[in-house]
Amino acid sequence: MSFYTSLNGMKNAQTSLGVIAHNIANSETYGFKRSRTEFSEIVAASALTNPKMIQGIGASVEAINQNFSLGPVEQTGSALDLAITGDGFFTARSPLDGTTQYTRAGSFQMTGGGNIVDNSGNRLQLLPVDANGQVTGNTLGDATVPVVNAAGSAFVGVTVDKAGIVNASYADGTVEPVGAIALASFVSPGGLKKIGQASWEGTGLSGAATYGAPGSGPYGSILSGALERSNVDIAEELVGLITAQRNFQANAKAIDTATQISQTVINLRT
To answer: Where is the secretion signal located (predicted)?
Structure first.
């Protein structure tokens, strides 16, 4: 039995090493959230087993949980580089299949048609606003800036204030609000499904997304000209890396010891 107990320990250490390696590899990925591996004890016993004699048969991976603590904020100066100062996720929709994704990586840019998109071409979602920049509803829509206003003046720039209002400036000096950035919140963000590129999808475990404007309810404010960096702590990950390596070596040594004991028993019998 000790062979399989130690073998499970080696597999668990390998899983932990993989998670830590993924964290380290994404230490420079904007909006990335680190994960940690959690284990649980395996015990097998019948109703007649003496509770003082239960030995246990190893451990298993209980969960790989995500840590959504805030990462450090880096100033960039670009108007469409956005960081959230509290909870919440940017909402982006794929123009190809209409799927909705959520991210903390706020690196956006404009296309030639006036759409505000992320690095994968997904369109940032906005809430509708009136001429004074007040939110008028909860219906999400693509962030699209008119390249020419009603007076025929050409678009010259865009800004985003701390309340998430996207304002478009035109050559005639007018400034028109386009919409308010829609931030998503979840009852259990740990239940979100990773889909890569520092983005997530909602699941039954996370619960349905609720949307709101920055600065209201559980949603943080918006910092324009800044990006949230990964929340990976390299020093902590390196300590975890050493620990996982030692766990792997210790379990390998246990298998080696069990092999030597078995060989000794076999030699005694012969």
So the answer is: none
Burial of 191 (0-12, 13-18, 19+ CB in 10 A): middle
Judge if pTM exceeds 0.85. Answer: yes
What residue ranges do the domains of the chain occupy? Answer: 2-68+232-269, 73-228
d(CA 194, CA 50): 44
75 forms beta bridges with 226
Nearest to 79, CA basis, from 174, 155, 152 = 155
> What single-letter DSSP state applies at residue 216?
S
pLDDT of amino acid 107: 96
pLDDT in tens, 125-141: 999 999 998 999 999 99
DSSP string, 9-21: HHHHHHHHHHHHH
Q: In the chain, which stretches have pLDDT less than 50?
A: none
Distances (CA, A) of 110 to 114, 145, 153, 198: 6, 9, 18, 20
